[in-house]
Write a structure and sequence with these properties.
The protein is mostly helical. The protein has helices spanning 3-28, 38-45, 62-72, 84-91, 107-116, 123-142, 145-155, 165-173, 182-190, 205-221, 225-231; strands spanning 51-52, 162-163. The longest helix is centred in the first third of the chain and has 26 residues, at 3-28.
Length: 234
């Protein structure tokens, strides 16, 4: 057997082992919050620090849960991980429109990327996207919607060095995530496209505009039976 063939076999075996380990880690994360993510580690290394305080699902305001769904993924309770219509629109010329919701990447996709993968662009972005598909399907099957939303609201970046809704609530409003009002929750979620650029405090023009839009969407979807059941789940 040639050295090249041996190297390829070794590489494939290594990749398979790493994937199996990551799947086992994913299963553990159904009950345990991630100790740290690559994005959070990058924040520490870059000097932005790490403000984070994990909280359980029932310690997060229903307003924050509703704001996240309204602002990021209004089809969250209906799809199985992907909003194919939004993805198609994001690749086409009509990027400004969404059937329901504002992001091409669903909450499930964003959670998979932030917990198990990395940020960035270039060639590695395409590798990440392929892996993101797999991890998104796995968390949909293994975690379920409630756990996905809980982890999402705990790990997502909500300001420079600020991760999760509890740290954001403390930093911006000096209160717990459980006590966030509708407008406060909407303002925090509004920064998510780029939390380092679109600041909650001082309040950027984008956050001002987007939070008003999110508040309207919260009103529009609050009567949806599936969404109501999810945000009030115990």
């Amino acid at each position: 057997m040639s050295k090249i063939k041996k190297s390829i076999i070794w590489l494939l075996k290594t990749v398979l082992k790493l994937f199996i380990i990551s799947v086992l880690y994913l299963v553990v994360c159904k009950w345990v919050m991630p100790p740290i993510t690559l994005t959070q580690l990058g924040s520490v290394i870059s000097g932005n620090g790490l403000k984070r305080d994990y909280v359980s699902y029932d310690q997060i305001s229903s307003n924050a849960k509703l704001a996240a769904i309204a602002g990021e993924d209004q089809l969250f309770t209906d799809h199985s991980g992907f909003d194919w219509a939004a993805l198609k629109q994001s690749l086409g010329s009509d990027k400004g429109k969404r059937a329901r919701g504002s992001a091409a990447s669903t909450i499930s996709q964003q959670t998979a990327k932030n917990v198990f993968l990395w940020q960035g662009s270039g060639v590695t972005r395409y590798v990440r996207k392929a892996m993101e598909f797999v991890y998104t399907k796995l968390i949909e099957w293994i975690w379920g919607k409630k756990r996905i939303l809980e982890v999402y609201l705990n790990v997502i970046e909500m300001g420079k060095g600020i991760y999760g809704i509890q740290a954001a609530a403390k930093n911006y409003y000096q209160k717990d995530a459980a006590d966030l009002s509708r407008s406060e929750a909407a303002s925090i979620i509004a920064c998510l496209p780029n939390p380092k650029r679109f600041t909650v405090k001082p309040r950027s023009k984008f956050v001002n505009f987007k939070s008003a839009w999110i508040l309207r969407q919260m009103h529009n979807i609050q009567g949806d039976g599936k969404i109501k059941a999810l945000i009030t789940a115990k």
